[in-house]
């Protein structure tokens, strides 16, 4: 039973990353008619409404302190992460951002060690991290003429990686409350939307019904809102609940791999030989970082005070 639960956790993380790795196509199409904050607000508003339809039960918190954790999750994983990533893309190359964002698992491991009492990142995890980062760099830069250093954009990308690590750590704390994963995710979306409001008020936010109802735009918005937001955040949070923040975050290494493969399949882009080698390196790094002994896993659970299902 325990093994089946773990398999489900890995499957949830894998499905999430498979979808997240393809969202760039929809976002690229929508950016022709929408601003980044408009896309962000619409997709998470859609996701929030869908989660209400799927599970229309109000979440009754047992303590006011828990509300702060949900607010922190909404601020980090919904509002700040995506805003920092989108702003970074305006200052630096997408390849730079792709590589830098992929360091999030390292920060997640450090945060888990410091704040959740988890294991200190070991040689196996760090070796896998280095190998995966080398593979990601090959994938991202093989099509670029040269590596471009843009301090502001790159710093913002690092900040986004740190923020996502914080979100993953907070999500593990939230899962320990024992609420239904859809209710918890919906509450996080609510706070994410609230924290977007100041940015919306400060920007030229204009959305017309005609824009949204265009078949091409509606299809891409539904994919982002229902698939990449409502479904994926639920499956990601489920993965964190079962596997923990460190093991789940390692799947982020796969995003550039999926992006490269889908670019070849959907957009007909050629995959250079260096990228093929980079994909193999990234997969090897993922497997190395994920491979931890049973003894260590049990020790980690005791250290966090959490059971296998993420409850006290």
From TrEMBL:
Compartment list = Membrane
- What is a single Pfam family found in this protein's UniProt entry? EamA
Q: Per the UniProt record, which residue ranges are transmembrane?
A: 12-31, 37-55, 67-84, 96-116, 125-143, 149-167, 188-209, 221-238, 250-267, 273-289
Q: How does it sit in the membrane?
A: Multi-pass membrane protein
GO cellular component entries = membrane
Q: Which residues form the EamA domain?
A: 12-140, 152-288
**UniProtKB keywords:** Membrane, Transmembrane, Transmembrane helix
Concerning its family, UniProt says:
Belongs to the EamA transporter family.
Q: What is this protein called?
A: Permease of the drug/metabolite transporter (DMT) superfamily
Q: Which organism is it from?
A: Lactonifactor longoviformis DSM 17459
């Amino acid at each position: 039973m325990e093994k089946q639960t773990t398999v489900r956790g890995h499957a949830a993380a894998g499905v999430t990353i498979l979808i997240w790795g393809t969202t760039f196509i929809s976002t690229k199409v929508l950016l022709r008619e929408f601003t980044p904050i408009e896309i962000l607000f619409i997709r998470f508003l859609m996701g929030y409404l869908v989660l209400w339809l799927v599970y229309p039960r109000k979440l009754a918190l047992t303590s006011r302190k828990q509300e702060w954790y949900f607010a922190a999750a909404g601020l980090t994983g919904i509002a700040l992460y995506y805003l920092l990533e989108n702003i970074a893309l305006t200052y630096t190359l997408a390849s730079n951002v792709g590589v830098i964002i992929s360091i999030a698992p390292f920060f997640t491991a450090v945060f888990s060690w410091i704040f959740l009492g988890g294991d200190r990142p070991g040689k196996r995890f760090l070796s896998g991290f280095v190998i995966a980062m080398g593979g990601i760099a090959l994938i991202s830069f093989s099509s670029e003429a040269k590596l471009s250093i843009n301090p502001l954009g790159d710093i913002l990308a690092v900040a986004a990686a740190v923020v996502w690590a914080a979100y993953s750590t907070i999500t593990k704390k939230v899962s320990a409350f024992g609420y239904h994963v859809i209710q918890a995710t919906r509450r996080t979306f609510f706070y994410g939307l609230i924290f977007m409001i100041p940015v919306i008020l400060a920007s030229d936010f204009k959305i017309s019904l005609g824009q949204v109802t265009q078949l091409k735009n509606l299809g891409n918005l539904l994919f982002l809102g229902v698939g990449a937001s409502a479904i994926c955040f639920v499956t990601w949070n489920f993965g964190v609940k079962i596997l923990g923040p460190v093991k789940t975050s390692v799947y982020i290494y796969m995003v550039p791999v999926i992006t490269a493969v889908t670019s070849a399949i959907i957009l007909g882009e050629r995959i250079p030989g260096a990228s093929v080698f980079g994909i193999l390196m990234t997969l090897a790094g993922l497997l190395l970082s994920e491979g931890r002994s049973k003894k260590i896993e049990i020790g980690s659970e005791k250290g966090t005070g959490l059971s296998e299902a993420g409850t006290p």
